[in-house]
Task: structure prediction
Amino acid sequence: MKSQRSDCPVSQSLDIWGDKWSLLIIRDLMTAKQCTYGDFLKAPEGIATNILAARLFQLEENGLIEKLDHPESKAKVLYKLTPKGIDLLPVMVEINLWAEKYFNIPADRKAQLKEVKKDKEGFIKAGMKELRRS
Amino acid sequence: MKSQRSDCPVSQSLDIWGDKWSLLIIRDLMTAKQCTYGDFLKAPEGIATNILAARLFQLEENGLIEKLDHPESKAKVLYKLTPKGIDLLPVMVEINLWAEKYFNIPADRKAQLKEVKKDKEGFIKAGMKELRRS
DNA sequence: GTTTGCACTTGCAAAACGCAAGCAAACCTA
DNA sequence: TAGGTTTGCTTGCGTTTTGCAAGTGCAAAC
Result:
């Protein structure tokens, strides 16, 4: 176990996913429900394959994601969020809302967030339910 | 300006504060309203002084914090959150709530979060108002 | 006017990152 | 069933970032 810097909740959280890539992996899993290794590599940010492997391992180690057999092929792997990872949805939503206020973001994302703002609680509840179902 | 990796809101956010230290600086400023350079160094996580200087510069550059003259001494500096930084409060609250569910956190923080959960909206609204006032 | 405090800067070793290439197991194709 | 392709990684290696310790310059205190 990586040494934790303090018992502060924020600090402990950052110890796990406080880097430039982990939350992007979580994001991909929240939008796609499940991803293969190759899916993550296809993300527009262009994560390096060794970094991806390291992050996936770390996220699994910390119980945010889990690895499953692909139903169609032994060569493929499926990654998906655990309940602990799914519970990051509210954090992810707030990040999106903050970013929307201060950055230029794609029109489709903007439209989506407009919906979110109409009923944040409802969106999150429905989103988490959907993620748990998959 | 640091190159942005994509136009995804999450990615753009992480480009700015996606590291192990930035949100801890924001946290300190949210709880203390204003901090000197030395205050940040005193935080339990023990940030190195060169890293602190780099992060403060980066956060100021990106408009999350601002530097002010200390009213009592020219040798001191005061850092505080800008509106853009204050707007991260909802993100910070959700991180705390997530962490509370999955980590062991200090009793006083736990008690505080119990209050937050009673009226999250209200807490955030009041907190932001307070931060803007200072 | 010398010491102390404060906000940094500098030097350097260690760790993390990022790119490119390699690799084994599964799979597909003829 | 042989040979190429896809998939999920691992390895090497140069570059960047981090972290520790020491140093610097200015302001205030004594």
